[in-house]
Write a structure and sequence with these properties.
heterodimer; A: alpha/beta; Glutaconate Coenzyme A-transferase; ten-stranded mixed β-sheet; three-stranded mixed β-sheet; 15% helix; globular; B: alpha/beta; nine-stranded mixed β-sheet
């Protein structure tokens, strides 16, 4: 058994503490918001200029002037505020956002992150990712453990153009949770039923297990 | 108000009259389809102003399931009116991505926060600033590096443009503007960074109808404004169901 998208998002929600300001990236990270305990006060930041992102709107509340960074329609809360892009990235660069949770194409064992282009093939553009990983106190990655063709995504050294240098703190994949430590990825937790052997086989990077060293 | 200093124009055609020329640089507000000055963009396209340098977060976009349709600045890309673009994100814009990969367009890809701050700096008369964003990536190549308190930063320079086109919710003849919800985004900083700024305003209201404490863009930054309401575009309609009672 491995974790599915929702289970990975639920595991990532454990990274969030009461009172945190949090930025969620596009894709699986967006699902993290569905797993925050009701008694916990968390404020979601959207880099296009909003604090206090609410859930998707009801059909009759859809408003073209109210979208998140993925350009999805959202709703506001009584606690929400709006501001310009410069102010929004001032919050990020200024270290006011406690956690940023985003997706990745590759993470290297020194914490390097690549998630914005494949040379000659695909350019999504950088968006706010470089600012987020440079400015946020803690960077958590959610991604599949391997590429669609089974290639490694936890690597010795990124082959794709970097989004940030030594910026990642923790990676949550469908196989488990890994922390960037001095000599590689330290296993923090395995998804239920996943064996260490399977993780070893599917990882290129240096893995550190309890009892190693 | 003295007629000579009148900032309001009856429509987009008169508001843009005499300001457009081939080879010009244009800052265009908006994030995706949200908060774009669409009537201004349509007019620039109608006049086929070419060799443009566009400064905009996305340069318009395309709809996921309609490959030949797009909105905003995408329409200018499609007509090959753009020579150079300074943007942060070109996903959801296949035309942009293809023209860039085929080297038909010059693209200065800039992190979104750096883009915003470069524009803010341009409007505020600050020629450059140091940031940690992009250190160790291709963004940092060729840029001055400097250490502050043991951390490395890179020098980024300010941006201004011949013209800024911004979209506001309400405005007065004075040029005071307020924006609505997340349609604010890049609009206020671009308003300040254009040598000439035109505001496309949903509703021009009487002086006194806007609370001076709540003005987002003071009129000093706005040279011309007109009332216009383009159809608003939704890129990703995401909704939830009401729980059955």
């Amino acid at each position: 058994m491995t974790w599915d998208r929702n289970q990975m998002a639920a595991r990532a929600a454990n990274e969030i503490r009461d009172g945190y300001y949090v930025n969620l990236g596009i894709g699986i990270p967006t699902l993290v918001a569905n797993h925050i305990p009701e008694n916990m006060h968390v404020t979601f930041h959207s880099e296009n200029g909003m604090l206090g992102v609410g859930p998707f709107p009801f059909e009759d509340e859809v408003d073209p002037d109210l979208v998140n960074a993925g350009k999805e329609t959202i709703s506001e809360l009584p606690t929400s505020s709006y501001f310009s892009s410069a102010e929004s990235f001032g919050m990020i660069r200024g270290g006011h956002i406690q956690v940023s949770i985003l997706g990745a194409m590759e993470v290297a064992e020194n914490g390097d992150l690549a998630n914005w282009m494949i040379p000659g093939k695909m350019v999504k553009g950088i968006g706010g990712a470089m600012d987020l990983v440079a400015g946020t106190k803690r960077v958590v990655i959610i991604m599949d453990h391997n590429t669609r063709t089974g290639g490694p995504k936890l690597v010795h050294k990124c082959t794709l153009p970097l989004t940030g240098q030594q910026v990642v703190d923790r990676v949550i994949t469908n196989l488990g949770v890994f922390d960037i430590v001095e000599h590689g990825f330290a296993l923090v937790e395995l998804a239920p039923g996943v064996k260490v052997e399977e993780v070893r086989k599917r990882t290129e990077a240096n893995l550190i297990f309890d009892g190693d060293n | 108000m003295n007629k000579k200093f009148k900032k309001t124009y009856p429509d987009v055609v008169s508001a843009l009259d005499g300001l457009l020329f081939d080879g010009m640089s244009i800052m265009s507000g908006g994030f995706g389809a949200c908060g774009i000055a669409d009537l201004c963009i349509q007019e620039i396209r109608r006049l086929q102003i070419k060799d443009l340098t566009l400064i905009s977060n996305n340069c318009g976009g395309q709809f996921p399931n309609r490959p030949d349709e797009g909105f905003g600045l995408w329409t200018l890309l499609k007509d090959r009116l753009v020579r150079r673009a300074i943007s942060s994100y070109i996903g959801t814009n296949k035309t942009f991505e293809q023209q860039y990969l085929n080297k038909e367009i010059e693209l200065e890809l800039t992190p979104q926060g750096t883009l915003a701050e470069r524009i803010r700096a341009g409007g505020a008369g600050i020629p450059g600033f140091y940031t940690k964003t992009g250190v160790g990536t291709i963004i940092a190549e060729g840029k001055e590096h400097k250490e502050f308190n043991g951390e490395t930063y890179i020098l980024e320079t300010a941006l201004t443009a011949d013209l800024s086109i911004v979209k506001a919710w309400k405005g007065t003849a004075e040029g005071n503007l307020i924006y609505r919800k997340t349609a604010r985004n890049f609009n206020p900083i671009m308003a300040a960074a254009g040598r000439v700024t035109i505001a496309e305003v949903e509703e021009i209201v009487e002086p006194g109808e806007l609370n001076p404490d709540c003005i987002h863009t003071p009129g000093i930054y706005v040279q011309r404004l007109f009332e216009g309401r383009a159809e608003k575009i939704i890129e990703q309609r995401t909704v939830r169901e009401r729980a059955a009672i």
